[in-house]
Amino acid sequence: MQALRLLFVVTAVPFMRIVEGAQAAHCFYINNKFLRNVTDFSAVVGGLYSAWNATEDTRQHVQLKQIYVHSFTGPLKLFSNDIALVLLSTHVSINVNVLPICLDWGQRLPPLPSGTLGLVAGFGGYRDMQYDVLKYTTLPFLDHHDCEKNTSLNLQMYTTVADKFCVGVNNGSAVGPGDSGGGIAFETEGKWFLRGVVSLGAYNKVENSFFTNVAHHVSWISDIAKEVVVPNLDAKCLRCICEAASGCNTTYGCALGFCGPFYMSRVYWRDGGKPVLPEDDPIRAGAYEDCGRNYTCSAVTVTNYMSKYGQDCNGDGHTNCDDYAMIHFNGGNACYQPMGDTNFSARYELCRADTLSLPPRTYHSLINSSTGMASADTSASVLQCGCSASYVFAAVIVSMWGAARRPHYMHRASILAATSF
C-alpha cells in the first residue's frame, strides 16, 4: 500500500478498478457567481455509498486544502472552463479501491470516433432523485455533427463552446442532476484515460449532455500540478546536484556567466522565479549573483526550476533525482540528452551511490520531453498508472455542506430545460 497526496478531486469507478479525475468548477460556486470557501467541503475516497457517515472499510475521509478554478464565469460564457482542481490536505492510501487514471499529457491520443463508449459513475438519478449506492454506465461520445443533429434546440448553444464535447444516451441512461464533476473514461490500448468532466445538460428528460474536454485544459492542469508538487526532490537530491555542479563549493563566486555552488546561470535563475535573499529585490543589480552564491537561495531556485521542467528524462517510468540531474545539466527543454563522460556526471554518480536510495541504474529508450511518468507523492514513493502521465489521481467523492449540512455528491443516471448538473 502506498500513500499519495492528491491535487485532483475525482470520482470512483470501483467495479472496473479505475478512477476518473478533475471536477466541474460550478460545483464549488454559489449561484455560479461566488466561490465557496474550501472549508465548506470534505472528501471521501474509496466509498461505495453516498451517505457521509456510511460505514465502509474502504472509505477514507480527507479535508481539502485548496480549490483551483480556471477563469470560470458560469452562464455568462455558456459554462466554458467548467473545471476545477482540488488539493487534499493529507495523503490517502492507494489500494485496490483507489487507483490512478491516465491523462493524455502529451495530447497524442487520436480523436474519439463518434459512438465510442466511455465509462461514467456516480450517485445521480431522475430530477432530484439520487442513489444511495454508486452506479455506473457506458455512454457514447458524439462528434460535433452527431451532437448538433441529435441535440434539442434549448441545448444547441452549447455545441459552440470550444472546451465542451457531447455525450449521448445509451439504453435510456445518461448523466443527470448531481453528476457534476464526474468523469468519463475511455479505454485506449488497455489504458483508461480521463477525457471529460460532467458539466451540463437537460433537467427533466433523457438527452445528450455536455462534458468539459479535459484535453483542452491539460496545460493549465500541468501548471497547477507543478506548482504543488515536485516529486522525489529532497535535500539529498539537491545536495547531489550541488556536488555534481561544483563539488558543492559554497565559496565559489561568479564567473563565465555562472554563480555559486549550483553553477547557476542568470537565465536559470529567471526560469526559477528569481528568488532573492531576505529583504532583497529581484530587480536590484546583483540580486541574481547574491542568490547564486547562497546555498539556500540557490536551492529554492533549483526547486522552482524543477517544478517548471520536471519530467521523466531518461524514460525509466519514474521522475526522480536522476532526471533532475539531467535537467540541471542539459536545461529543461533538452533534458533527455545523456550527460556523457563529464565531471558533472562523474560527481553525480559518486553522490548517487553514497547518498541516494535509488535503484540500480537502467536506461530505457528516450521519450519525448512533453510526456513522462511521475509520482505525486512527496514522500518519494513512486506509483505508476500504466501510461505516460505526470501526476496520478485517486478516487474521491466530494461532499458540499450547506446550511442544513446535507452532503451534495457527484452522480450518474438519467438526464433530467438546460441546467448545470
Automatic annotation (TrEMBL):
Keyword Hydrolase: yes
Disulfide cysteine pairs (residue numbers): 237-321, 242-248, 254-259, 291-297
SUPFAM superfamilies, per the entry: Trypsin-like serine proteases (SSF50494)
GO process annotations (BP): defense response to bacterium; killing of cells of another organism; proteolysis
CDD domains in alphabetical order: lyz_i
Signal peptide segment: 1-24
SMART domains noted in UniProt: Tryp_SPc
Family matches, as Gene3D superfamilies: 1.10.530.10, Trypsin-like serine proteases (2.40.10.10)
Family annotation (Pfam families): Destabilase, Trypsin
Top-level enzyme category: hydrolase
Domain Peptidase S1: 24-226
GO molecular function: lysozyme activity; serine-type endopeptidase activity
Enzyme Commission code(s) on record: 3.2.1.17
UniProt entry keywords in alphabetical sequence: Antimicrobial, Bacteriolytic enzyme, Disulfide bond, Glycosidase, Hydrolase, Signal
Hydrolase among keywords: yes
Catalytic activity, as annotated: Hydrolysis of (1->4)-beta-linkages between N-acetylmuramic acid and N-acetyl-D-glucosamine residues in a peptidoglycan and between N-acetyl-D-glucosamine residues in chitodextrins
PANTHER family, A to Z: SERINE PROTEASE HEPSIN (PTHR24253:SF153), TRANSMEMBRANE PROTEASE SERINE (PTHR24253)
Protein name per Swiss-Prot or TrEMBL: lysozyme
Organism name: Frankliniella occidentalis
Source species taxonomy: Eukaryota, Metazoa, Ecdysozoa, Arthropoda, Hexapoda
